Amino acid sequence: MITTDKKIELLAPAKNKECAFAAINAGADAVYLGAESFGARKKAGNSIEDIKEIVEYAHKFLVKIYVTVNTIIFDNELDDVEKLIWQLYEIGVDAVIFQDFSFFEMNLPPIALHASTQCNNDSLDKIKFLKQLNVERVVLPREFSLKEIKNVTENVDIETEVFIHGALCVSYSGQCYFSNYIGGRSANRGECAQPCRRKYSLVDDKGNVLLEKQYLLSMKDNNLSAHLKELICAGVTSLKIEGRLKDKEYVTNVVSYYRQAIDSISKTLKASEGEIITSFVPNPDKTFNRGYTNFYFDGKRKKFINPLTPKFMGEKIGTVKFVKGKSVVIDSKHNLNPGDRLAYFDRNSDLTGTTVKTVNKTAIEVLDASSIKQGTVLYRNYDSLFYKSLNSAEFKRKIPVKIFADNKKIVIKSFDNNQISYEYKEDFETANNIEKAKDTIAKQLAKLGDTEFFAKETVIDEAFNLFIPVSKLNEIRREAVKQLVLKSKENYKFQRRDTKIEYKDYPIKSLDYSFNISNTKAKDFYEKCGCNIKQLGKQWAPEHTECSNITLMKTKHCLRDFAGICLKKSKDTRKLFLIDEYGKKYPLNFDCKKCIMKIEITDI
């Protein structure tokens, strides 16, 4: 039983305009996307023109649009960032998601600011500090347990955003320098090369191999669908789906699933308007995922990774009984169809795949069976029938309106009491057939067709007796809809930020490279807040010999625990290292009190 009156936002990702529209039509209450630059997903940028079009469509349904400007910024970019934020404000974007604290030294419009998870919002004191800066919302770390989430919602009057689905970074956000170190592509600049999705071996200080050539840092995907009630009752503002690089099909499927899941808890929780009309049945298991985990939600350590592959395996279909040429016989209870794609591990333990060409009663024929053997376990990672259903499904988002007519006026009323009243200027004759006249006016006014409205209720006054020509009714309806759209736009409520701030003491006094201070404005801001800056942020790369004291990554994922030698349970104190596919060795350090593993840089 949900007792909160608070609206719960379902926040969806979009890499482009197509995905944004799909997310809105599938039931998102808000959408986040990147501009052409300065977003933490460099490949997911959008022009100002496209963002404006998305905003205009979204606001019809009270859906909010947030734009990510959440990279670290260099001095030569400060003016461009300031200009970009003004442009976003002027086209009606609801909020900007930021990482760099130079924002508080810029001349910015009063647009709402959301503190990205890249800000490393990992303590109550940091979040209270953000509140003092008039930050509207904080994106909480993926590592937070429910208990830690509640600690924020109960102690700081600030909106909270929690990731509920999608890819997990193995590192604390904003604290990963691995990608930049190995190849000059910074995660904090939106260019992560994902070294966490590569193979590594775990060895000890004597060269003994504990785990060989596995994906030891490749996290499963986040899935908190079983914990939505707990999050809602905890006072969370926004439930966020990760995936700004995902395609339209993924966005539609996952957003539909969570829209239905939230509505099944309570239909009064929805933070936007418009009913979703579709016959599509979503299933997140059918689109890309790496297997699921609820990560640290319950505060318990578990197996967070899939060491076998970082790819999408799909559902297990069965085991191969017999292979002849391209014909394969499977011990399976699943129905396969032409176009299905099958995944399996080859003799080198690499995930590979093939496509089903034909299906008969006893066997299937595949495109390539050269590496399929008797005993091979097959998985389906593309269900052709599901995708056919998904791609052919129609999604309509319609705002219910109430229509009323009597002998003086016609009234059309939508959400938030937006209402248009048309008073007759003409002297209409009395109808010869009053019942037919009532039926005609009801039918014609309800013909809202391709508009964003549908007639939920039509009431014709009992005393109505006028003959109004169909052409006139159509004219009135079109004009009323036009005016209703304009009125909704005029009445749209923006959250506005007070740009005047007081420089309060930052909760940490001594700041190193991990605070990613990369421009003079950010430096000035922290110094005004009483900080001593020991190190500026740097773009770490192999040629930087001063990197030897840098932690490349800190993570809740512990390889000691994964290997069965957790120091809380074992006396095995040998030093451990990761070795990548090129032979590069990385020392591992363990903070057992905080259950954090650190990947360090070896001597260069």
From TrEMBL:
SUPFAM superfamilies in UniProt: Ribulose-phoshate binding barrel
Domain Peptidase U32 collagenase: 378-484
Name the UniProt record assigns to this protein: U32 family peptidase
Species this chain originates from: Candidatus Limenecus avicola
